[in-house]
Specification:
- The chain is mainly beta and 653 residues long.
- It has six helices and 40 strands.
- The protein has a 22-stranded antiparallel barrel. Strands 1-6-7-4-5 form a five-stranded mixed sheet.
- The longest helix is centred in the N-terminal third of the chain and has 13 residues.
- It is globular, with a radius of gyration of 24 Å.
- The two termini are 37 Å apart.
- The N terminus is likely disordered.
- Belongs to the TonB-dependent receptor family.
- It is found in: Cell outer membrane.
- Keywords: Cell outer membrane, Membrane, Receptor, Signal, TonB box, Transmembrane, Transmembrane beta strand, Transport.
Length: 653
């Protein structure tokens, strides 16, 4: 498996690719087009000025500007990631309205508006990166590269992207890069992290290589435990560009990710006083290995008004877990996908997009136990999608529809409609309605884990119906922007984990009642003078199933980010405050093995970052996370890290 993945990644890195001028970046910082304007105003997190586009907001080149988009979107720009010293992408996503992040047993889950972790489509440089076996992406394995950018679309996106986007889309783009840049840092818990990137370009081509490394000795995560939970990993990636002739371009990208770390298990001895709690588990660890590659070609016709894009991508992901006496479980999943996307710009106001996707997912449950299913299964899907967009002076409208043909589940049609109107020069109203679908994953269908989990081959797809209304208000001649969105979603045939008596072995099933998620998202950004910016977000969520609160969905989440930047970007400091409200979780502390609901307390974390330019090419930086050493749990009896500090140096050439 290592050789195959290395070959896939190496072939893609060696290939050349193109990036459209709309997302071309500048030198050194890897910034996107028009990012100089952002640097002059210190880069806002929410609702950036015209000039940036929401790339994932359309399947074709008819990408909407933020003020034209009728849904809920957040863009996190390159400079914002640098100032916050983002290492794990999961951390900065905590500052996005509607997003909840939780880490447990070596895996980090991402939820949007109360959806499940496998309801969020994650794209990295246009590649779908979820594990076909697990049905979701471990967002904790995604490290922020130099020059990267992130988009988050909230609400159902199945009408454009199909099954995996029922809750939303997170699109990470490493961007085009010119120059050379690197940083290293070290600090608490024997932490050592680093990143480097080099890129170059000519008149018709560009190429870049990037790498990141993370290593930490960690600290105990069991209550009263002494075993440090460490983690090591690295990412190698490359992308490139070649415009063969005017209007015809080729592109390719590749990525290899290796992650390994420790984790603690729960005590399953009913006679033990710590039964059901996380305990020190010597020898338990995991290994993840993933390779991704994409190649594509783009053709412009009708003087660029009609574009055609053909691409193929592959993902190959393996995960193994180990115990004190050797390997305990393993899985291997791969995805092969081909897409044709066409965009037609009829006029300045009207555009059409069409997409055709073919996808095959396969998995093998490579479990060392003879009684586990170890064969290979596959599922194929064909999706056909179309979208119409109208972008007027004061009114915008979009409508999308998609039909999926699946060889295991019934064919499904999803759609989405949205509209936005500028009620005044400073006030925008918007509304969206859409449906979504999520097919069961391989683990839910066929999974087996150490006698504690058995899959269910009779599962049905989950279906959702969602709507939202929102308003964006500019104040003080644009120095402040306030946004408010109310959302409501209904999920039918939700897949949940049940523990039937008498053995109480976990198995998935479809609910017979509706799962309901509704809430309010508030965001604000303000330019407080020339050097000071404030970004804030708050989410209220009411997620219930048959009147019972769903687990790991905090009712209140808030964040505030205050950044001061000296003239000329010579120095900067950032203060980050994040609050996570109380939430429920499931525990197995009853000796009968019956599940018990436990309440997790709320917590508030404070981080502080600072950096300063030493010379024209070198910067020194440092940060303290969990400044007040808050003790908290995101998952029952898994203690999260305490206060940590790091210092480092960065060089740009």
């Amino acid at each position: 498996m290592m050789n195959k993945r290395s070959l896939l990644c190496g072939a893609a890195v060696a290939a050349l690719a193109w990036n459209s001028p709309a997302v071309a970046q500048g030198a050194q910082e890897g910034t996107y087009a028009n990012d100089e304007e952002f640097e002059q105003v210190d880069v806002f997190l929410y609702h950036p000025k015209r000039g940036d586009i929401i790339v994932s907001g359309s399947r074709s080149d008819n990408d909407p500007y933020p003020e034209e988009y009728t849904g809920s979107a957040t863009i996190i720009e390159t400079n914002e990631l640098r100032q916050r010293q983002v290492r794990d992408v999961a951390d900065v996503l905590r500052d996005v309205p509607g997003v909840a992040v939780a880490s447990v047993a070596g895996q980090t889950q991402l939820r949007l508006r109360g959806s499940e972790a496998n309801h969020v489509l994650v794209l990295v440089d246009g590649i779908e990166v979820s594990n076909p076996f697990a049905g979701e992406f471990d967002i904790g394995t995604l490290q922020a590269e130099i020059g990267s950018r992130i988009e988050v679309l909230r609400g159902p996106q199945s009408a454009l992207y199909g099954s995996d986007a029922i809750g939303g889309v997170v699109a990470y783009d490493s961007g085009q890069f010119d120059g050379a840049s690197a940083w290293i840092e070290g600090g608490s818990n024997n932490t050592f992290n680093g990143a480097a990137r080099i890129g170059t370009s000519g008149g018709r081509w560009n190429a870049s290589l990037s790498g990141t490394i993370v290593s930490t000795g960690g600290e105990p995560n069991a209550r009263g435990g002494a075993r440090d939970i460490g983690r090591d990993g690295y990412t190698l990636s490359g992308k490139g560009a070649l415009e063969v002739v005017d209007g015809f371009e080729l592109r390719a990208s590749g990525r290899f990710v290796q992650t390994e770390g420790d984790f603690n298990d729960s005590d399953f001895d009913p006679s033990s006083p710590t039964f059901g709690f996380v305990i020190d588990s010597p020898g338990t660890r995991f290994e993840n290995e993933a390779a991704y590659a994409l190649v594509g070609a783009r053709l412009e016709t009708m003087r660029g008004d009609w574009t055609h894009d053909l691409s193929a991508q592959i993902a190959d992901i393996a995960r193994d877990t180990f115990g004190q006496f050797g390997r305990t479980s393993g899985s291997d999943g791969d995805r092969l996908k081909a897409s044709y996307v066409s965009g037609l710009r009829i006029s300045d106001a009207h555009s059409l997009s069409f997409a055709a996707d073919w996808e095959r997912e396969r998995f093998r449950n490579d479990d060392p136990f003879d009684f586990a299913f170890t064969g290979r299964r596959s599922i194929e899907n064909v999706g056909l999608a179309g979208e119409y967009r109208f972008d007027g002076e004061r009114f915008d409208f979009s409508a999308a529809i998609r039909h999926d043909i699946n060889d295991r589940f019934a064919d499904e049609t999803t759609f989405r409609m949205g509209a936005g109107i500028d009620a005044s020069e400073d006030t925008r109203l918007r509304a969206n309605y859409g449906t979504g679908i999520k097919n069961p994953g391989f683990f839910e269908l066929f999974g087996f884990f150490d006698g504690r989990f058995i899959g269910n081959e009779d599962l049905s797809p989950e279906k959702s119906e969602s709507w939202e209304v929102g308003v964006d208000q500019r104040l003080a001649e644009g120095a402040m922007t306030l946004s408010a969105t109310f959302f409501d979603s209904r999920l039918e045939d939700e897949i949940f984990t049940t523990f039937p008596a008498p053995l109480y072995i976990a198995t998935p099933a479809n609910r017979s009642t509706l799962s309901k998620q509704r809430g309010v998202e508030l965001s604000a950004r303000a330019q407080l003078g020339k050097q000071l910016t404030l970004n804030a977000a708050y989410t209220y969520l009411d997620a219930q199933e048959n009147g019972v609160e769903e687990v790991r969905r905090p009712g209140n989440i808030a964040s505030a980010v205050l950044t001061w930047t000296a003239p000329g970007d010579e120095r900067s400091t950032t203060l980050i405050v994040r609050h996570n409200g109380a939430t429920d979780d499931v525990a197995f502390t009853d000796p009968s093995f019956a599940p018990v609901v436990e309440r997790l307390d709320s917590f508030t974390l404070v981080n502080f970052n600072a950096e300063a330019r030493l010379t024209g090419q070198f910067r020194v930086f440092g940060r303290v996370e969990n400044l007040f050493d808050q003790t908290y749990e995101q998952v029952f009896s898994f203690v999260s890290p305490g206060r940590t500090a790091v210092i480092g140096i960065k060089a740009d050439f």
